Amino acid sequence: MAGNRLRVGVVGCGYWGPNLIRNFSNLTEECEVTMVCDQDTLRLNHVKRLYPWVQTTTEFNDVVGSDQIDIVVIVTPVSTHYDMARRSLEAGKHTLVEKPMARSTEECDRLIRLAEAKGLVLMVDHTFIYSSPVRYARELIEQGALGKVQYISSRRLNLGLFQKDINVAWDLAPHDLSIIMFLLDAEPAGVNCQGSCHLNGQEDVINMSITFSNGSFATIHNSWLDPNKIREMTIVGSKKMVCYDDTQPNEKIRIYDKRVEAPPHYDTYAEFHFSYHYGDVVTPYIHQAEPLKVECQHLIECIRDGKTPLTGGRDGMKVVQILEAASLSLRHNGGHVLIDPAGNHMLERAGHALHAA
Ligand SMILES: NC(=O)c1ccc[n+]([C@@H]2O[C@H](COP(=O)([O-])OP(=O)(O)OC[C@H]3O[C@@H](n4cnc5c(N)ncnc54)[C@H](O)[C@@H]3O)[C@@H](O)[C@H]2O)c1
């Protein structure tokens, strides 16, 4: 620590890394970015032009070996997350790792144990958990304003960017899954996932459905092959419904006072009819702060004050558990994969468990 300020090393400054460099750099009272690492010198030169005082290196060993760094931020492709996070924790650094946390539940579990054994903070960048509209939606649910949440559907679509090492579920669904689990506060119980590949052998479009231990249900549609950028989530409650559109600059949340009710009792089929309620549509004012800024501040508070991260290793692992189950389902053309409370998953067909994962 330099004085009172925590020192940050950022690894990976491709598309997303510069956003983390900027946000940590802006927290001038709490921290400073001392080193940036990328194997691509063009990217390092770009960072050096923006932040001339920051040390740059192509060697990850320089970051973990430095006594000028307290926090390592890993913003490289997922195939590198486990190894880098392990080496960072082993070197005694608090570690922020990008989503998805790692390639398997087992890797996540090892990182969680290592962080616990070393007494270090391990956090995962589930950025949307720090966004105002997502928090607003969660407050609505907690206050009971929506009634019982019956289901959530999420669509995250755009043209590209194609990833080489993962399919579209591993790339985009971590956002949907982390938000859905934050909203529902429930454990996943089963997953079905179908998809197809059109360009590079990785699924570029998928449909996933997830059941939860509390009876809730969610669907996720992700694509890298869509003409429009879509970031929509619908939360259907028994009293009200919410549409969250993250592409809207200001009016991201709309609350619909709409519902359908079945009759409490009926004696004949002729008496059975649904009642439809149509009320106001409300667009609340929501003060917005940059989610990454809130997240960087939260990481610093967790380190300084011993708080448990809102998106810690266990939250990262839950997302990876569902992604692993989704991959198993994809390989079996959408077969139902059960997830038990310990996070193990198993393919089920016609009520019979066929293959252990
Ligand atoms: N939280 C979010 O909203 C969000 C958004 C985009 C990407 N991401 C995540 O960020 C990570 C990076 O994604 P990206 O889109 O920035 O990828 P990218 O390919 O644009 O950048 C990755 C960078 O890492 C560097 N790199 C790769 N291996 C390295 C190594 N061994 N040592 C040093 N540098 C190395 C590459 O040279 C590249 O500059 C991924 O895990 C992705 O899922 C998160």
CATH fold-level label of the largest domain: Dihydrodipicolinate Reductase, domain 2
Count of helical stretches:
9
Number of domains: 2
- Indicate the low-confidence ranges by residue numbers: none
The major sheet is characterized as: 11 strands, mixed
Structural class assignment: alpha/beta
Mean pLDDT: 94
Question: What strand line-up does the widest sheet have?
Answer: 14-13-12-11-7-10-9-8-15-16-17
Short description:
The protein has 357 residues and is α/β, with parallel strands linked by helices. The protein has nine helices and 17 strands. It has helices at residues 17-26, 41-50, 60-64, 78-90, 105-118, 132-142, 168-184, 291-305, 313-331; strands at residues 6-11, 31-37, 55-57, 71-74, 94-98, 122-125, 149-159, 188-196, 205-212, 217-223, 225-237, 241-245, 253-261, 275-282, 336-339, 345-349, 352-356.
